[in-house]
Automatic annotation (TrEMBL):
Principal subcellular localization: Golgi
GO cellular component terms listed in the entry, alphabetical order: Golgi membrane
Membrane topology summary: Single-pass type II membrane protein
Subcellular compartments: Golgi apparatus membrane
Coiled-coil regions, chain positions: none
Alphabetical keyword list: Glycoprotein, Golgi apparatus, Membrane, Signal-anchor, Transferase, Transmembrane, Transmembrane helix
MF (Gene Ontology): sulfotransferase activity
Organism phylogeny: Eukaryota, Metazoa, Ecdysozoa, Arthropoda, Hexapoda
Gene: LOC117139591
Name under which the protein is recorded: Heparan sulfate 2-O-sulfotransferase pipe-like
Highest taxon of the lineage: Eukaryota
Length: 127
């Protein structure tokens, strides 16, 4: 039921785990609200106390390829060790949640790949 709800009611479901991909898909699927989102996110993250009102968005192409600046930003470097048995117990007890999470993640990746295929097609690189 949750999967049907996502398919029916949400254009994009992203995650902070895949920030770059999420923002790219949002910019392309919902440009009215998300045009320039990656630029704004990068600017605010790279320059402390940078007011978003000072960001000027030029008529740039909304197609933005993978950007390493924001790819690894949300990784936890101080991740504590978790016993494999604990991980397995959590997977067993949260089967539906894991399935839903991977469904949403796969959907986001398919949307991202569709954008890239469309870009290749536009440039005549896909035949």
């Amino acid at each position: 039921m949750a999967k049907e709800h996502v398919e029916r009611d949400y254009a994009v479901v992203g995650s902070w785990e895949d920030t770059n991909i999420t923002l790219t898909v949002l910019e392309n699927y919902i440009p009215r609200f998300f045009r320039g989102a990656k630029l704004m996110y990068e600017s605010r993250s790279l320059i402390p106390n940078f007011p978003s009102s000072e960001i000027t968005l030029h008529s740039q192409s909304p197609k933005t390829v993978h950007n390493s600046k924001i790819t690894n930003r949300n990784k936890n470097k101080r991740k504590p060790f978790v016993e494999p048995e604990v991980k397995e117990m959590i997977r067993r007890n949260f089967t539906n949640e894991y399935e839903f999470y991977y469904f949403c993640k796969q959907r986001l990746y398919k949307q991202y790949l569709a954008l890239n295929l469309k870009e290749l097609e536009v440039h005549g690189l896909l035949n």
